[in-house]
Structure formats: structure tokens, C-alpha cells
## 1
Amino acid sequence: MNIIVVGCGRVGSHLATLLSEDGHNVSVIDRVADSFKNLGRDFNGRTLKGIGFDEDVLIEAGVDECDVLAAVTSNDNANLMIAEVARRIYGVSHVITRLYEARREKTYAQLGIDFSCGTTLVAEDIFSKIQSGHGHHIDTFGDYEFARFAFNFEDDSTMLCRDLENEYDARIVAVEHDDQTFMAQRDTVLYDGDVAVVCVARENYGRLSRFIRS
């Protein structure tokens, strides 16, 4: 895959090295040229000095042919701007951001932005998300995927958990609605914009994605 990593600090350099060793075409962007010294000797990708949401820099990095972009700078606002430019202007299908402030998790989920939150193992978490081939990935368990996302229902319609579970061989684990989080039941009503953790058979994830806000 063609992958752009924006930010070459501890997380970004480790992520870029993991991806490079895995055989991907990787371009790394950072506003400080000395940051590229963090990359391992085995890194064989490209490095570009510049601001990650600068369109000229993104074009030079190959955003037009980009499969995944990871925004992992040390600034949440910059990461969000980078993600929105990549998604809205260049149509990058899989964008992942590093998120420092956990209180923003619900907002990011409702915006349809995939993210990794925390201070440890972030590079490995994002690497796993990229390897899964889709956004909103939490973990893989055999033939099933765990994902966290906001529901997107047309015309503010609703759906019962049991209807979605029966149709897509899925299990809705937990739901966040109006700032309240609770375990889902078969008769739980899902509303447009609700954020949920869902376990779904990998072969059905593509069909289920019609209900995922992006």
C-alpha cells in the first residue's frame, strides 16, 4: 500500500519503520528535518519537510495515490486538520489520527474519524488498524472484527439491535447515546449518531459499512 505518515516523533518514526519493514511504500512528513533522524536505518521510504495539512506537501508525498494516511503529530488540532484535508479534499479512504485528549473520543467517532488514543503502544495500534484494511478497527478475534463507530441512518431513522445482528452476523456490545453508555440488549433501539462497539464477522464488514458514519 501507499501510506503517508505525518509526524516523525517517537510514534511516527516507529510506525513508519514498521510499515516500511512490512513492504509498504511509505512517505513521512514532518516540519522539522532533524526529526527524520528518528527513523531506523532500514527505513527505505521518502521523507519530506513541511506542514502536514499543506496541500503542496501532501501532493508531493503522493496523496493522490494514497491508500492510508496516519496523522500522528503531537497536536490534536493539527491531526484533525490533516485528517479532514486528506478525507474531504483528496478522498483518502482510510485516515487514522493520534488523539491525546480522551474527552474528544466521542466527537471523533461521530465525525467518522478513526483514531488511536493513549500514550503507549500507539504505533502498534495504528499499524494493526492499517493491516486490518478498514477504519474503526479495535481488534481481531479469529474470523471476527471488533470496531467502534457512529451509526449513520438515513432520515434520522432507527434500528433495533436484533435486526442488525441477525442480518449481518454481528453482536453490538455497548452503545453510547446522549452521553450515556450501556450494554446493548436485543431490543435496544439504535439512533442515528449513536456510537457503538460492534463485533462482526469479517466477511460481513463490507456490507455493514453502509451504516458507518464516514
Note: Helices lie at 10-21, 55-61, 76-89, 105-111, 122-132, 161-168, 205-208.
## 2
Amino acid sequence: MELKTLIAECTAYDFKVMLEDKRPKSWLKSVSAFTNGLGGSLFFGIDNDGIVKGLDDVQHVCEAISSKIRDYMDPLPEVEMIPHDIDGLHILQLKVNAGH
């Protein structure tokens, strides 16, 4: 799978090299913006230049994202977490659907 293929399928996207557990508002603002707009995706494990760095523990990142969204957001956005392998590195796509 190529990164260009993934981001071509998104209306909007943002890259995060890792999940910031201690600063969830840094990425929850993007989730909120995507929900209030046309939707979009956050890609964890990719730096701001679009270079794939990978994640050590995708399962932990998924669980932490679910927890932070439940703790900080109301109403809950409709999201989907999609793991991908790019060149042997694991990344996570957090797909956020537009709200109703």
C-alpha cells in the first residue's frame, strides 16, 4: 500500500508522528474539525513531511484514541481505526466521518 493512495481517498488529512497521550487536545482538535466539516483522516506514524516513521504498538494507540475520544468529546464522533503496513512499517489511519 502506498501513502499517496491512502491520502488521495481523504477529503482532508493530518499527519502525526505518534500519539501524544499527555496532550490529547493536540490531535482531538483535528478530530473535531473533521467531524464538523466534510470528514477526514489522521494518520499516526507519519511525520509532517509525509515520511512514514511507523508505530511500535498499533493496538495501544487504538485503545488510547478510543479512551481519549470517550473522555473528551460529546457527542461522540463517528470514527474508524484502520491499521496499514507501508514498507514494513505499521501506521494507523483514524478516519473521521462528517457529523450530521
Note: The mean pLDDT is 91.
